[in-house]
Amino acid sequence: MMETHLGNFEEVILLITGILGEEAYAFKIADEVEIQTGRTTSIGAVHSTLNRLENKGFLTSQFGKPTVERGGRRKRIYTITAYGRRILAASRDFKLSLWKQYPDIIIDSLIYGRLSIKGI
To answer: Mind listing the pLDDT tens digit for each residue in 30-41?
Structure first.
C-alpha cells in the first residue's frame, strides 16, 4: 500500500513544485519556499523531502540537459504525478471542510480567500 500522508512541509514542497512547472529543481524550490513562506530552509531538507515525495509516488524526476552555468551538470527536474495531484486535492478539501466547521470563521469567498471572524 502506498503512503498517503502528506506533512505540512511536504505539502508546501509539492505545491511549489506544481507552481514552478519545468523549473522545479531543488535549488529553485528552496528559493521559492523562502519567497512564499518568508522562512529559510536548507537545501538538504528540500532534497530529503523531494526524495520522500518521490518514494511516496507523489512526484517523479528526470535529469534535464547539462548547462554551462552549472559546469556541465544537469538539474533534476521534479513533476507532480496524477496521484500527487489527487493527494493535494484531498488535503485541500479536508482542510476546507474543517475551516467551514470552525464556528468563528466565515469563508466569504473561496476564490478570493476572504475570511471574516465573527464579532470583529
So the answer is: 999 999 999 999
